C-alpha cells in the first residue's frame, strides 16, 4: 500500500509539473526572436490571445490580459480607441452598450479617419460586462495600464490603432517596448512604408514604426490591387516582420494562385512570405458567442458558416503544412495549446 501511495504521489507530481510547465511563457527575448525569425522555428506556431483571455473575464480587460499571460500565450492582442480628451484605452466596439454599463457612441468614422466622443471622466468608472452580459467588477483599461501588464512578459498586437498610431507609438517608446509591440490595420489604409513613416518625425522613429506594422491583407486584394505584391515587398524591405493574411478555403487565391516575385516563381503568396522569413498571421474567427462574430461598426453579429465556405474555423484545414500560418489569433486558448502540442507545433526544435 505504501508503494502504491508513493506511486500515486509521484505520478500526481509529474502531472502537476507538466501542467505547470505547459503554462509557463517563454522569456520575452525568446518570443521576440521566434516572431522575427519564423524560418528558425518551423515547428513552433505562436498563439495570440484575441482580446486577452475573455472566457473568464471581460474582453480587453486587465484580468483577461493577465489570464492570457498566465496561460502561456506568446502574444496578447487587444483593441484600442481614445477619449475625446486624448486618453488611449481598450475597447473593441464603436459604442459602449454591449461591453460596458455605459451608453452611446465612442467613435464614428471610416478607414483611418474617426471622430471620438466621451471624455475619460465619463468613461473611467464604467464597469465592464462579461460575455454573458453580466456586469463585472472591472473597469476600462488605459493603453498604458495594458502595456505595463505585458511589459517584459509577452508580445503585444494592437488592433484598431489606425487613427492614433503616433500617440500609440510614442507611449510604447516611452515604456521601452518597441521590440515587444506590433500593431495592425488594413494595408489599404497605409499602403506604403512612407505612409507609415510620415506619421512620426525622427528617422529612428520612422524606421522603428514600420518594423512594428503588421498589415492586414484580405484575399480579395489579390484581384482588386494589381500592385499588391510590390506593396508587400516594399514593406518587407523596410523591415516589416509579418502580415495578417486572411484566407478562407481551398479555392482561395492566396492558396491556389502562383506568384512571381523578382523573377522567382512561388506556389502562392504565402509560400513567398515564408521563403522571405516573413511571419504569416491568421485569425480563424471562431464564434465569440453562439451568435457569431461581433461586427463593431454595424452593431450586430456576423454569423459564421462553420460548415460552408469559411474554413478558418477548421483547425485541421487551417494548419495544413501547405498553408499553415505562423501565428494563430485565438479565442480558444486551452484547446489550441493542446491541439498544437498534439500535432508537434509547439516545439522549439
From TrEMBL:
PROSITE patterns from the UniProt entry: GP_PDE
GO cellular component terms given for this protein = plasma membrane
Q: Name one Pfam family in it.
A: GDPD
Query: What InterPro entries does this protein map onto?
Result: GP_PDE_dom, PLC-like_Pdiesterase_TIM-brl
Annotated GP-PDE domain ranges read 45-153
Which SUPFAM superfamilies does this chain map to? PLC-like phosphodiesterases
- GO terms under biological process: ethanolamine metabolic process; N-acylethanolamine metabolic process; phospholipid metabolic process
Q: Name one GO molecular function term.
A: glycerophosphodiester phosphodiesterase activity
* Name used for this protein in its record: GP-PDE domain-containing protein
Instruction: Give the source species.
Output: Bacteroides cellulosilyticus CL02T12C19
Instruction: List the top taxonomic levels of the source.
Output: Bacteria, Pseudomonadati, Bacteroidota, Bacteroidia, Bacteroidales
